[in-house]
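Researcher: Sit down with what I've pasted below and flag anything odd:
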Amino acid sequence: MKLPILLHPDPRLKKSCEAVPDISDELRVLADNMLETMYDAPGIGLAAPQVGVLSRLIVLDCETGDDAKPRPMAMFNPEILASSDDLNVYEEGCLSLPDQFADVTRPEAVKVAWLDRDGNPQEAEFDGLWATCLQHEIDHLNGKLFIDYLKPLKRQLITRKMVKMKRELARA
């Protein structure tokens, strides 16, 4: 089931999320619904607060390209354990800020720990687009948006565009 995606500015997007105490069937269904929503948008990552759920859950699939085999992942309570000193710049966007993009500098590689759908602890290293997407989605769990990395003027400009867009959507 596709879920509505919250649009910035929304106070729920700026809140820190609670850890998931245990993986329930309800949370697995939420993860499946989030993946469906993400693919439909289309996007490569989605965090629970973006659909109004303040729990530490993200979904992602950074396999891109026409012949890429999907690699959907759901991560409960993801946590960055280590980050590389090498940095990468990616033009980031966000499903909560449609049509808004900006270059963001982040560590090129990260080591992440999380619980899988069955509650089993997992740990892996990610680099490139996967690392960027993971950092972006984990930021959402901490109430941080990619525009928070931008200079104030650029951040205000994007926020004004989003306010205008939300106003126009409300009228439609």
Q: What stands out?
A: The two ends are 24 Å apart (CA to CA). The first strand starts at residue 45 and ends at 47. The CA atoms of residues 3 and 37 lie 6 Å apart. Helices lie at 25-40, 128-141, 152-171.
